[in-house]
Please model this.
Amino acid sequence: MNILFTSSGRRVALINYFKETFQKHNINGKIITADLKNNAPSAYFSDKHIIVPKISNPNYLEELFNICKQESIHLVIPLIDTELTLLSKNLNLFEEVGVKVLVSSVELNEIASDKRKTFQFFLENGIPTPKVYTNEELEEKAYTFPLLIKPLDGSSSKGVTKIYNEKELVFFREYIQNAMVQEYIEGTEYTVDVMVDFKGNIKTIVPRMRIETRAGEVSKGVTVKSNSIIRAVEKVVNSLPHPAGCLTLQCFKKSNGEITFIEINPRFGGGIPLSIQAGANFPLWTIQASKGEIFNVQDYSWQENLTMLRFDEAVFTERIQYAN
Model:
């Protein structure tokens, strides 16, 4: 079982959890990482690190395909949003040589990568979500402050801005490319990790209350066994077109108890180490699903009230040479 993590970057904790799973369950194999840079921290924790071009490069897909053949890769796990649709559109290329890609359907990835499509999906399936204002409604000023503005195709909370008045609204609509304006929601924010097999069967759902974030990624969080959130997330996942692997959903629990969804990310989220440490064995389940196992029994034995407080660590190396 050789696994290739693409766009591995700083995802050291996740890679280490997979390595521990290999050891604990006597799984023979290697962890290979691929990234644009040779100084990605993950390079120093994988068995082998390979430099690849940008995802936008026409040769990117061919490079991944060649890595899979050369390294006898069984499973590819993409770790950033921008390559999910590309890989989902080219699943056959990999499956023809026996490589499984942990990616959901093209339709799901297109829904997740465009915030307006995400809003439309929630709306059509009767799932509570913040109102998105049309250009006509904005021109007619049919809204109340505060508002939230963000890029339609944004990721990692980049460009997400709370708007308090008309002056800010005018400025940020021009400043943020592909801007979308929506209702601002008050409530407790949760990130929810979900594991499904390649048939969409749910293995577990782990709500994590966001205590503090940094650069769009949770830095402090706590696991919460909220039945209302779990049931709401189950409805969303069962409505999605052909989900597979790990999904990360974001929602708010409002003061009246309503669960309001804002995002779908069909990949391992940055805060997944908390769910894994709590006992939700995403690495093992990922390997099992990739081998064709069907999740007939759900597992909610993970630990509640486990708190994660993240901090920076460093890798020191003389291996990298820089031009003077």
The chain has a mean pLDDT of 94.
